[in-house]
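I'd like us to work through together how a protein chain folds, taking it slowly. We need material for that, and I hope you will provide a protein of your own picking. Go ahead whenever you are ready, and we will take it from there:
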Amino acid sequence: MAGKNQTSTAAIDSVLADFGRRTDGPKPPNDAPRRARQPRKKRTPQNATSHLDQLFLQLFPADLCQQLQVITAGLAGCNLDSLEANRMIVDKVNRILRGTDLCLISEDGTPVRLRLVKPARSKKGYFQLRSADAYQNTVYSGAQFPPVRIAEKP
């Protein structure tokens, strides 16, 4: 997973560098010798739009739903070694879902939200699926990652 984050950060850095900004490294101190300014690339709306399209496709590929479905299917029935590791998985899945038009569907077809709770009887925490409607009923609660499907929001 760390490789994916580094790739996304590298993609953002390259797009910003192409657009005239640098995100890496500290700024030189005030007493550093001044260099002659190099002319910047002219910023145009078409240039910015193409860079934005490129970044969007790198962050949200066309087959994102299928990729996330494969990942969640691989996690089903698993429980990692610690509460922090389980929380990291839940947080990453939820961040991806919030950034897209995707949602989780339980085995019985109910749209749900994924949570991790820490009851006193469990050191690793429990995964919980709660219905995404106003009533927030618990659909699943257990130590293993629940089987879910990924679908586009209605």
In short: The chain has two domains: 1-22+43-59, 64-152. Residues 2-18 form the longest helix (17 residues). The first strand starts at residue 102 and ends at 105. The beta strands are 102-105, 111-117, 126-131, 138-142, 149-152.
